[in-house]
Amino acid sequence: MRIGYTMMCEQSGPRELVRDVVRAEEAGFDFAVISDHYFPWLDEQGHSPYAWSVLGAAAQATSRIPLMTYVTCPTVRYHPVVVAQKAATVQILSEGRFTLGLGAGENLNEHVVGGGWPSVDVRHEMLVEAVGIIGDLFDGGYVNRRGEYFDVESAKLWDLPDTRVPLGIAVSGRQSCRIAGAHADVLVAVEPRAELTRWFDEFGGGGKPRVGQLPGSYDTDRDAAVTRAHEQFRWFGGGWKVNAELPGPASFAGASQFVRPEDVAGSMPCGADVGEWVEKLTPFAEAGFTDVALIQVGGDVQGPFLDWAERELLPVLRQELGPA
Questions:
Q1: Are 276 and 270 spatial neighbours (Cβ–Cβ below 8 Å)?
Q2: Which of 48, 208, 283, 319 is least crowded, fewest Cβ atoms below 10 Å from its Cβ?
Q3: Local confidence band at 237 (pLDDT 50, 70, 90 cut-offs)
Q4: Could you give the angle at which helices 80-93 and 51-61 cross, rounded to 10 degrees?
């Protein structure tokens, strides 16, 4: 299993995100992913810079580590032709290290353009149409389309990378796995559910990478780690059927008001016990995930986490879960 690092835009400013991914590369992480949000999940997280500007800076500041959006919604806040142009440019800047992770989006980030929030079936239809447009633009030449959801008028990418941008698609159920199996080069998921990888294989994804994500809260003081995790990540337990629908941080605060610190601590590793981190990662390996990106909760503690990960966590993970 490859172990990645998450640039969590909701909890750090743009300069800090670039600084931290440089340190993650030095520490030996195998890849890095970045969230693409307009809002943080909770006010306590306190940030949400533009992910694509950060990616451009990260591509120049690093030299080895692969980069990936985790994930971008190419249907509401962004038109798919714009996403294709951004992805092609980042692939050139990173010299072939970029993967475009796509998803059906969350109301939290997409409502800001005032277009309403479609039902999940419509969102999936929009995603499939958007993926087709992006793929056509990656093929080169002019693209014209009159689709159900998107029109494209004589669009062309004038700067195409030598290496085609791989596409990842986020899944949470059978319907999204069908889309990913048919259209994605990479599966993206945040839950270690074996049925997701099984459905992905069933619908055409056999042999392709599958990337998971695990939040954790490192601290030498476990109580401090649990407190931070509860303050900033208690929203995580709502599940994606809920998380995709809520419109803002206040809604997530209300929905998670009865989540207790011990509930959060039970769902993610908290503290400096490497064994607990291995235990929480093992279900991803058992479910067939090839890659997992770690989230360190708390923007102001990335440095200590990365130092500890280089010194203690990564060597043990590679021993327990297999070399990269």
A1: yes
A2: 319
A3: confident
A4: 20
Crossing angle, helix 14-27 and helix 51-61, to 10 degrees?
40
Amino acid at 292: V
**Phi/psi of residue 214, each to 5°?**
-135, 120
For the stretch 147-189, pLDDT in tens is 999 999 999 999 999 999 999 999 999 999 999 999 999 999 9
How far apart CA 217 and CA 228 sit, in angstroms, is 7
Give the SS3 label for residue 134: helix
Domain count, the chain: 1
Tokens of 308: 């500890």
* Residue 30, helix vs strand vs coil: coil
Distance CA 188, CA 252 (A): 23
Q: What is the pTM of this model?
A: 0.97
Cα atoms in the Cβ-side hemisphere of radius 13 Å centred on 195: 5
| The residue to which tokens 């990173």 are assigned | 94
Amino acid identity, position 146:
R
Whole-number Cα distances in Å, 148 to 126, 174, 179, 181: 8, 23, 17, 22
Residue 323 scores a pLDDT above 60: no
A 10 A CB-CB count for 83 gives 25
Q: How far apart are CA 58 and CA 163, in angstroms?
A: 19
DSSP codes of every residue in 203-262 = IIITT--EEEEEEEB--SSHHHHHHHHHHHHGGGGG-HHHHTT--SHHHHHHHTTT--HH
Check which CATH number belongs to the domain holding 201 and give it: 3.20.20.30
H/E run at residue 57: helix 51-61
Residues paired with residue 210 on neighbouring β-strands, in sequence order: 187
C-alpha to C-alpha distance for 148 and 266, rounded to whole angstroms: 44
* Catalytic sites, residue numbers: 37, 106
